[in-house]
Every structure is written in structure tokens, then in C-alpha cells.
Design the sequence.
């Protein structure tokens, strides 16, 4: 999971750099180029936000699974302890 995040980050950074360089070398007015760069950066920011939201959702799902597992194990331990107390009482 850690490596895939790095790959996605590198990919997005490469796409942004490529888009900016492509626009900078295009024969257009400066204002048009700046507008295109702003649009590209806005699209990149949206993509990063979307990816971050997906990662947060995945982490929340994992957290819920871990909490459920821990609660289940704690319930089992509590049941065993209660049984042992009843046996020795």
C-alpha cells in the first residue's frame, strides 16, 4: 500500500510537470498559457483530493475491521475469564 501511494504520487507529479512544460513551450500568448497552467493545476489538485479521499476511506474501513476484530477478541477473553471465575467460585 505504501509503495502504490508513492507510485501514484510520482505519476501525478510527472503528469503535472509534463503538462506545465508542454504549455510553457507552446507558441501561445502568456495569458493563455497561464490560464492553461492554472486549469492543469486545478485538475491535478482535484485528482489529488480524490485520491486522498479514497485513501482515507480505505483507512477508515481498515480501522473498522481492526476495531471489530479487537472487540471480538476482547469479548472472547472476557467470556473465558468469566467462565474461569465461575469454575473457581
Sequence:
Amino acid at each position: 500500500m505504501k509503495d502504490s501511494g508513492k507510485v501514484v504520487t510520482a505519476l501525478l507529479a510527472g503528469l503535472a510537470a509534463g503538462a506545465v512544460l508542454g504549455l510553457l513551450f507552446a507558441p501561445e500568448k502568456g495569458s493563455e498559457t497561464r490560464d492553461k497552467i492554472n486549469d492543469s493545476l486545478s485538475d491535478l489538485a482535484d485528482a489529488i483530493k480524490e485520491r486522498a479521499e479514497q485513501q482515507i476511506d480505505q483507512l477508515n474501513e481498515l480501522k473498522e475491521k481492526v476495531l471489530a476484530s479487537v472487540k471480538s477478541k476482547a469479548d472472547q477473553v472476557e467470556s473465558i475469564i468469566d467462565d474461569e471465575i465461575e469454575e473457581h467460585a
The helical segments are 2-24, 30-88. The chain has two helices and no strands.
